[in-house]
Amino acid sequence: MDPIRNPYAPGAGQRPPELAGRDEQLSAFEVVLERVSRGRPERSLVLTGLRGVGKTVLLNALRSAAVRRHWGTGKLEARPDQGLRRPLSGALHQAVRELGHPQADDVDHVLGVIRSFAQRDAGANAKLRDQWSPGIEAPAVRGRADSGDIEIDLVELLTDLGGLAADVGKGVAIFIDEMQDLGPDDVSALCAACHEISQSGLPVIVVGAGLPHLPAVLSASKSYSERLFKYQRIDRLARDAADRALSTPAEDEDAAYTADALTAMYAATGGYPYFIQAYGKVVWDLATSSPITADDVAVAAPQAEAELAVGFFGSRFERATPGEREYLHAMADAAVAIAEKGEEELDDIQSVPTADVAAALGKKPQSLSPARDSLLKKGLIYSGERGRIAFTVPHFGRYLLEHA
């Protein structure tokens, strides 16, 4: 098969040639955009799921939908070592520019508020180089969004931004990737601002994406967050959608898969979008002709698995310390032990009790708290419910067992 015509795109956040299995989310978001544009109340949106299920791709697709409606949009990626003010200010600056408000004075006022919001992070006596602003030439507006209390400031900022959007009959959508990495104060402020904006009926929504424990992070910050956001779990693709993700791009290049090949691909990838793209790319390159067969998949599988072992699994495993790696291996061993006993059925994310992990290591659970907490902060594991732990990366346990 011609590698130049290979249609598959295994990359972080890179949109696949066929965005299969996400029609429901895209259609629902179109309804949200229309309702908000008409002044109807609507909740902000939170997407959750494991690594590799396409949350970032879907987040970008939703943003594109907002852009097509001429909304103001901005996107940021949360980081554990960075506060919300600076990245959010940059995102909102872009949103204001996209709105295309005709009144320059009104625009400059909101830009000045954004600048004031951003610069408050540096402090009153900060040096000039630290008085950062996201390319905004308008002077900072003093006394607005610069109190130093992130909750107060964010409410004032989004209120002014929402008023600017309402003037031109449009909306503003703020897209936040890796939302679980926001600090506690920033999460609290964001929830409070969304609550205030919703009550005011202003056309501003937040669309966040993060790991499965993100709802728990939001709920711990504000109890009303369960009613504030609309949660959508993004999971692996069903069989028909996975087949479409492979077949449609191939058909566009005058190629096809046999039914047995599609069955083999689904068995190998588990329906996870990133794995589908990774396997699809290798299978295409190694197949000699169309249609691609189950034998082609079998030949390509070792190379695809080797590439995933290095780029997808290995890069994450390397971030762990020796003690943390022991904990990860113990999680995989605990899952195997549960399956062999048959006394408890593993759930779809293969979460395991923390007590079983401790037993696998022959240690007391309390002594493992530092390793577990560090892995949680690194985003390699998460706790979906009290006393249980799971990998944030699908098939990670299998990788650990095969590369022990």
Automatic annotation (TrEMBL):
GO MF entry, a single one: electron transfer activity
Pfam families, A to Z: AAA_16
Gene3D superfamilies: P-loop containing nucleotide triphosphate hydrolases
Domain of life from the UniProt record: Bacteria
Region (Disordered): 1-21
Residues of the Cytochrome c domain: 166-266
Keyword Metal-binding: yes
Key words, A-Z: Heme, Iron, Metal-binding
SUPFAM superfamilies named in the record: P-loop containing nucleoside triphosphate hydrolases (SSF52540)
Residue ranges that the Swiss-Prot or TrEMBL entry lists as coiled coil: none
Protein name: Cytochrome c domain-containing protein
